[in-house]
Amino acid sequence: MHPMLKPALRRAWRGRNTVQFGVTPAHAVTLGPMDIATGSFLELLDGTRGLPLLREEARALDLSDRHVDILVSRLTEAGLLDDPSAGGVEADALRRRAETLERQRPDAASLSVVHPAPGGALRTLAARGAVRVQVRGAGRVGATIAAVLSASGVGRVDVLDGGRTEPWDVAPGGLPAASVGERRDTAARQLVRRSAIGGAPGTDRSGSATKGGEPPLSLIVVAPRDGLAVHAPDPGVAAPWLASGTPHLYAGVVEATGVVGPLVLPGGTGCAGCLALHRAELDPQWPRMLAQWQSGRRTAVQACDLGLATAVAGLAAGHALSFIDGDLPGSTGTRWETAMPLLDWRSEPLVPHLDCACGAAGHTEGELTSANAATQDTMAG
Ligand SMILES: [Zn+2]
Questions:
Q1: Do the beta carbons of residue 270 and residue 353 sit within 8 Å?
Q2: 368, part of any domain
Q3: What pLDDT score does 214 carry?
Q4: How far is 267 from 246, CA to CA, in rounded Å?
Q5: Is 288 exposed, middle or buried (0-12, 13-18, 19+ CB in 10 A)?
Q6: What is the mean pLDDT of residues 112-120?
Q7: Ligand 1 centre and the CA of 270: distance in Å?
Q8: What SS3 state is found at 302?
Q9: What separation in Å is there between the alpha carbon of 353 and the centre of ligand 1?
Q10: pLDDT, mean of residues 32-51
Q11: Ligand 1 centre distance from Cα of residue 83 (Å)
Q12: What would you report as the CA-atom Rg of the chain, rounded to the nearest whole angstrom?
């Protein structure tokens, strides 16, 4: 082990004998009591020295071997130590690809704060290479999400959309001006490939072709060009994803409002069907209005502020990555919304609906049966 204090966290003395690692409340840790000699010793924890050498240099500071061992174990327990050689085989493979890792250093530093075990950051980053995500929609929001996921090391990003790129689809980070007139799916595929670091889509992080066809789909990001389909997601469209148990995350812009979420974990959190049922209960006119919005004559170009679209894409990509990395981000079963011009984000939990077939409300067998019976009565009547 070559202990290294995580470079991502700034250090400051809090008073005379306590050290605070990190600036922000989300990840800052304080450690004390700590004397000046120990404080100086911390400078040696830069990943270049193994424990024997550290103990030797500590003796010059009048610190005992035992003191060093206890300090190292306390720092490790507090999630403050990384090890430049930890993380397993995949992390080692990533380390050997210096150019790729150089570009991902800020991402690795960020992950080192979130995944506290030594080597946790590189292990997490490397694991993204085996993940497949589908992005549905290649407009300003969808294409940017796909590019960010690809650039963040997600091994395979498939983008689905129809038609040809229009001038108003172009966005920095999304489809380029040169793709206007090209098929959207082709343009998006090129964007994903250009954004990828270290290996084209369809290859794993070691650069070899993925064995045995496609890796399973970890996540669908629903980012249609028509933002109404995110504001009021269609339960019918989501039915196959619920049936296959595929997690899906909604993101889009409708009029001058941005929406991120919910991230639906089928059978676990509220889904499009739950949302539709709640809305119809709250507002009896909702289904009638929605039908008009969906069928009404649509203007050729939908409202979509570029700053808002970029913020939505960035937040959605961040939530997707957090989920891919093994956490449950704040959009899990929750919708985040922001409206111009104030653009403050607000969240609203999407409570699973008892009558929804997704089962997230925790149906027991008996409840299901009575719900089915009620449906049959209605049909018979
Ligand atoms: Zn549901």
A1: yes
A2: no
A3: 75
A4: 10
A5: exposed
A6: 94
A7: 5
A8: coil
A9: 6
A10: 94
A11: 44
A12: 25
pLDDT confidence band for 199 (50 / 70 / 90) = low
133: β partners: 157, 219
Rounded distance between C-alpha atoms, residue 242 and residue 235, angstroms: 9
d(CA 83, CA 108): 13
- Non-local (6+) Cβ contacts of 195 within 8 A are 146, 147, 148, 150, 151
Domain range for 59 is 4-82
One domain, residues 92 and 76: no
Cβ proximity of 305 and 255 under 8 Å? no
> Tokens standing for 309?
């679209």
Question: From the CA of 317, how far away is ligand 1's center (Å)?
Answer: 23
Same domain, 179 and 219: yes
Whether residues 156 and 200 share a domain: the answer is: yes
The count of structural domains within the chain is 3
Please give the distance, rounded to the nearest whole angstrom, from the Cα atom of residue 272 to the centre of ligand 1.
Answer: 6
Going from the Cα of 260 to the center of ligand 1, the distance in angstroms, rounded, reads 18
Return the structure tokens found at 306.
């570029």
Query: Do residues 166 and 106 share a domain?
Result: no
Q: What percent of the chain has pLDDT over 90?
A: 84
Instruction: Report pTM.
Output: 0.90
| Confidence band for 216, pLDDT divided at 50, 70 and 90 | confident
3-state DSSP assignment of residue 183: strand
Do residues 188 and 333 share a domain?
Answer: yes
Task: Give the environment of ion ligand 1: residues with CB less than 5 A.
Answer: 271, 273-274, 356, 358
**Does the pLDDT of residue 363 top 70, yes or no?**
no
Best CA proximity match to 143, nearest among 324, 312, 361: 312
Cα separation of 37 and 101, whole Å? 34
